Amino acid sequence: MNLREICDQFQWVDADDGGHLVTPWFYDDGDQVVVFVRRDGTGWRLDDNGEGMFRLAVSGINTDGERIRARVKAFPALLDVHLADDNETLFASAASELEVGKTALAVAEASAQLQAFTALQQARQPSDFRQRVIDIVQEVARDAGVEYRQDVPVDESGSLMVDVYIASPTPLMVVAATSIQRLMEAEIIWLDAAHRREPAYVLATVESAQAVGISQYTRANYYTDKTVEFASPALRNLVSSRLQH
Hints:
Helix content is about 40%, strand content about 25%. The radius of gyration is 19 Å and the shape is elongated. α5 packs across α9. By secondary structure, it is α+β, with helices and mostly antiparallel strands. The chain has 2 domains: about 120 residues, Yope Regulator, Chain: A (2-Layer Sandwich), CATH 3.30.1460; about 120 residues, Trna Endonuclease, Chain: A, domain 1 (3-Layer(aba) Sandwich), CATH 3.40.1350.10.
């Protein structure tokens, strides 16, 4: 892995009172997630300028909805990121320049996470693809005598759902990513479990890489334990092998 190539994906732009960090993450409209850094007394204030909430609003999403507010309320504990008094801006504080980089990534992550809720614009319908994934995963678990459940919330706020949860030694969380937004939810589920140090293996499956976009599919393999294209025999074998872990 070339770490320099990863670092090159971030761009810092100086300003008189601080600057802003352009990250390699994107909102649904194609704009990159940007974190603004400004002097605040002897420390620094970092925020997303309200862009995460704004994009939900223009997508017709009620930003005062229960699931969104529950997720935002979880940010302080997970990322030390807070919602400002304007109920739009996500921000965090850094006491010194040494903390600015880590804090900027936390703000960017929180702002990007909100985009998954654009999936609320339309009620999620069980597609044939999703049902096939569920049927296969449940059949494998049933044959192995391992407990499983369907449509399970897996974060502390109850806002993130997996399609199938299997109670293997390391819990297997399966997401049938029927859209780009749903694939982003799988990434958030993985990040959430990692932040809480919760043992979990997040497996996302897409109908095809082309359906969600090659770049999104490639990125998802960095932000889930594994993301694969759907193929019945391969999915059976993969799930079966994970039940032993």
